[in-house]
Design a protein that fits this description.
The chain is of the alpha/beta class and 215 residues long. The protein has 2 domains: 124 residues, 3-Layer(aba) Sandwich (Rossmann fold); 78 residues, Arc Repressor Mutant, subunit A, CATH 1.10.10. It has 10 helices and 6 strands. The protein has a 6-stranded parallel β-sheet with strand order 2-1-3-4-5-6, with helices on both faces. α7 packs across α10. The longest helix is centred in the middle third of the chain and has 17 residues.
Length: 215
Amino acid sequence: MTLRILLADDHTLVRQGLRKILEDVSDWEVVGEASTGREAVRLALEKKPDVAIVDIGMPQLGGIEAARQITRRAPAVRVLILSMHSDEAYVTQALQAGAKGYLLKDSADTDLIRAVTVVSQDKPFFSPAVAEVMLDDYLRHLAERGITDRYDALSEREREIFQLIAEGRPNKEIAELLFVSPSTVETHRAHILEKLDLHSAAELVLYAVQKGVIR
């Protein structure tokens, strides 16, 4: 089955370079190219690609907002953000907008194929440098608040559920896998967030990447 990809970047040379890397892979096809965020959204709705690679700094409509609109209006499209920024704020915004992955431009030549492969499987992907920065930021924030990393405080069942949540699985699916009720999963989710001092699903995914639970 052919993997269909949309490229959105306002620099023609960048798109050409990415396209060449992507189309060297057997059964991968770039079905559209966009130079603005608005065009990216339009093409995502029109072409229904499996993966949309969206530059974070797009004219007319920023990459974060484009990702938000694409994932809301075409939830089957997996968005991979392409960015020069490894800052925590950008990564968190991308996740909250519904992006499945965050790839730094300076590592695109080596990580692009793996990033698209992982995201196409509906799993999160982050450039190694992003995960490292996020871990440093997270540990610094904990230290400033006098809190230690609490991952070891999770029970065996909580760690199972933690990974399944980080993989993007809904409560109902987790409940079926573990033979418990959805309400039990939700209770565990609340306890996990509380124990780890996390406040959203986006933070949980980042933490999972930082801990090497998902890649």
